[in-house]
Amino acid sequence: MKNNIRVERAILQISQAELAEKVQVTRQTINAIELGKYAPSAVLAMKIAKVFGKAVEEVFQLEEND
Fold it and tell me: N or C: which end of the chain has fewer CB atoms below 10 A?
């Protein structure tokens, strides 16, 4: 699963730690999601998208092998 979290964070000028606090996970979880090492739950994906004011599909995109 690809994502635009790093870009969206840059637009809002927030750190991984700040995003993590807003969605109630660890900074390490945000880092793993950004790197594509961890696919978030539907609930977490929705929380992240809400922080950015975007639809889930605007932040996360499925890849062929997903």
Answer: C
Going by C-alpha positions, the residue among 38, 25, 46 that lies closest to residue 66 is 38
Q: Where are the domains of the chain?
A: 2-61
Q: What are the pLDDT digits (tens) for 45-64?
A: 999 999 999 999 999 999 99
Closest by CA position to 66, among listed 42, 45, 27, 39: 39
Q: Give pTM, 2 decimals.
A: 0.94
pLDDT digits (tens, 9 = 90+) for 13-27: 999 999 999 999 999
Class of domain 2-61: mainly alpha
Tokens of 28: 């390490």
